[in-house]
Design a protein that fits this description.
Shape: globular
Largest sheet: none
Order of helices and strands: HHHHHH
Radius of gyration: 14 Å
Oligomer: single chain
CATH topology: Peroxidase, domain 1
CATH class: Mainly Alpha
Number of strands: 0
């Protein structure tokens, strides 16, 4: 049996490697930069509001990296077969909302680490083209 940390690390690692393989360096930098900044936004504004902001960005012409990150995060945090993380966070009661927030922040820790180590994104990198 694996810990939740191991499960999340493995899932995020797979997503990051796949993203690196299938996307340009510019897209990788944008994806990684969003992944690094999102935990701060969640802590400052709350999960639902942070995800709504990223979702709005995902709907823009240059928002593919935002959309991909939201999808990857949802796949990891939300139980299989359920709604997206944004939908789940909007409709959750307080205990479930807190649970989703903790899981999202835990997953985002791994997105942050692997974005820096694999995609070579720095915390100071700005999101370009959004």
């Amino acid at each position: 049996m694996r810990t939740i940390q191991q499960q999340f690390a493995s899932a995020v690692y797979d997503h990051i490697l796949s993203y690196q393989k299938d996307h340009s360096e510019t897209d990788q930098k944008k994806y990684g930069s969003i992944a690094i900044k999102l935990p701060f936004l969640v802590q400052k504004a709350g999960l639902a509001q942070a995800l709504a902001f990223v979702n709005r960005k995902a709907e823009s012409d240059s928002g593919e990296s935002y959309k991909d990150l939201l999808e990857h995060l949802s796949q990891i945090v939300v139980e299989e077969g359920e709604q997206s993380l944004l939908q789940a966070s909007i409709s959750a009661d307080l205990p479930d909302y807190i649970y989703l927030t903790k899981r999202a922040l835990l997953a985002l820790e791994w997105f942050n680490r692997f974005s820096q180590s694999i995609l070579k994104v720095k915390q100071t990198d700005e999101v370009q083209g959004s």
